[in-house]
Amino acid sequence: MWTWTTPLYRVWCRFLARIAGLPWGACATTTVYRGLTRLGVHSGYASALLGPIVAAGFGSGLIFSAAANTGTFGVTPRDAGIASASVNTGQQLGGAIGTALLNTIAASTAASYLAGHAHGRPSAQLVHLALVHSYTTVFWWCAGILVAGAVICGALLRRGPLTRPDAVTAAESARPPLD
Q: How far apart are CA 147 and CA 120, in angstroms?
């Protein structure tokens, strides 16, 4: 059985992060969100959501692990804590702003759907259709954002494993340790 501490598991995760990383993780998660746009009012959890949720977790894991590795790479050991905190703060702020943005899109889409289809008080079925329409709209937005992120990361980040320049390594070894 594989656990978090199994050496083979750790090697496999490092291998996947190097091969896949940010662009491929974003592409995998984009595919999931594109698939989620097919949800309907009567979609079941096991048949329509369970598989995509697991795949989204895999893709997001590739994204976040590669982002943390890239964000803290080349930092001196004495600055590792602040570098890690900066990456974490960026992820938290991005998550908060992204959630607010996507919630605003979903709420306005549901309200527009109800305004365009309701004549008087909306029925429960119409409210359900409005919610599903708002979810699928947000899933399309998520897919678009992830495609843009994959393109940007693929263009800006160099390929292959991260390597330190020899000058940086020599400068770090020449520094006296902090007491």
A: 40
Alpha carbon distance 38, 107 (integer Å):
19
Token pair recorded at residue 145: 């954002």
Helices then strands, counting H and E runs in the chain, come out as: 6, 0
Whole-model pTM? Answer: 0.72
95 φ/ψ angles, rounded to the nearest 5 degrees: -65, -40
Measure the CA–CA gap between 55 and 32, rounded to whole angstroms.
7
Token pair belonging to 103 = 């919630």
Distances 166 to 18, 101, 171, 172, 173 between C-alpha atoms, Å: 21, 43, 9, 10, 11
Read off the pLDDT of residues 14-59 as tens digits, 9 standing for 90 and up. 555 555 567 777 877 888 888 888 888 888 888 888 888 888 888 8
Q: List the domain boundaries for the chain.
A: 19-66+87-160
